[in-house]
Amino acid sequence: DRDVNSALNILALGHERLAGGIPVL
To answer: 25: part of which helix (H) or strand (E)?
Structure first.
């Protein structure tokens, strides 16, 4: 579970960065 949570957190950070550079729903 910890591994999954950490992976989701990394994906979330990457998504936020992409959203910050490009407006995405």
So the answer is: none
Q: Which residues contact 3 (CB under 8 A, 6 or more apart)?
A: none
| 1-25 tens-digit pLDDT | 889 999 888 888 877 777 666 665 5
Tell me whether residue 8 is exposed, middle or buried, using C-beta atoms within 10 angstroms of its C-beta: 0 to 12, 13 to 18, 19 or more: exposed
Which residue type occupies 9? N
Residues whose CB falls within 8 Å of the CB of residue 18, separated by 6 or more in sequence, listed in order: 24
